[in-house]
Amino acid sequence: MQSLIWDDIRVFLAVAQTGTISNAATLLGVGIATVSRKIERLEATFGMPLFFRHQTGYQLTEDGRGLLEKAEAMETAANSFLTEVDVRTKIAGKVRLATTEMLASNLIIPNLPVLLKKYPDLALEIITDSRTVNLHRRDADLALRLVRPEQGHVTVRQIGILGFGLYASKQYCENYPSQISDEAYSHAHFIGWTDESQQLPMYKWMEKTLNGRPLSIATTSLSAQVAAVKAGLGLAVLPHFIADSADLICLSPKLGLNQPLWLVIHADLAYSLKIRKVVDFLTEIVSQHLQQLSSQIIKS
Q1: What is the pLDDT of residue 239?
Q2: Cα–Cα nearest to 209, from 255, 249, 243
Q3: SS3 193
Q4: DSSP E strand stretches across the chain
Q5: How many CB atoms are closer than 10 A to CB 192?
């Protein structure tokens, strides 16, 4: 026996329900010749006629009536399958994204309306805890971070570069012109990270530059450093796109501190449709802001 083709069963049901080839063709949105050919193929597969042909239409044979209930059960199962597929492919539910407060507040959240307007049933949980979030333990579903994970059941790819420079406020530059003209900044006030952030390249740069001198202000958050620089309290190493939006002055645009932006996804979730939509969103917004993220914007 030849293999059954589900579309032929659909045609069989349509002819049985409507009573004519032409009505079945209209119902299915296909040509009359297509319906006729599929009925003939189905009868050849079973090796028996399924319909009596009359001038007034098609009537089921006894064998055809015997198959009708089974064909209707197949149709019910197929519709149930398609309904389940539709439910599973709907972009809905919670996605947990781990990232830095800097990227969340200044890049991701300002662009979120586009994503959530397109997928209103998607719920994004953004984790900006200073502690390292472990995707392998499922603390989050995916992450956008500056440090590449060295282990864990995750997929990793670089989607951009985050550039850093040395920044001051206009007020500080006016108050201490001699300090900023000194390329070594040997008498300048500096704002940086507390000792809990010794692993950061920015901390290490500051430690080397100060060469034993203490920071004027040490903080545990980037937003506090930006506020301190804006208040004219000193110089700080800041991401270009943050400092640019704060209208700060770049004293040194290239410090050798540029960091890759790593998109990290729990491997078991890499093919989840809702995860992929968030991944596409993050990739797109980073791509749209590549120059702003990686380098100083020169204002005319």
Answers
A1: 92
A2: 255
A3: strand
A4: 51-54, 57-60, 93-99, 122-127, 142-145, 154-162, 164-168, 190-193, 217-219, 235-239, 249-252, 259-266
A5: 24
Residue-averaged pLDDT of the chain = 83
Tokens coding 72: 């209707």
Amino acid at 61: T
* Per-residue confidence band for 224, with pLDDT thresholds at 50, 70 and 90: very high
Burial 156-171 (b: 16+ CB within 10 A, else e): beebbebbbbbbbbee
Rounded CA Rg of the chain: 33
- Residue 134 DSSP label: -
Q: What single-letter amino acid sits at 185? A: Y
pLDDT (average), residues 255-261: 88
Contact 63, 54 (CB under 8 A): no
| pTM of the predicted protein model | 0.64
Residues, the chain, total?
300
Contacts 24+ apart (CB under 8 A), 267-276: 267/153, 267/154, 267/155, 268/153, 269/141, 269/142, 270/155, 272/141, 273/88, 273/89, 273/91, 274/91, 274/92, 274/93, 274/95, 274/119, 274/122, 275/95, 275/141, 275/142
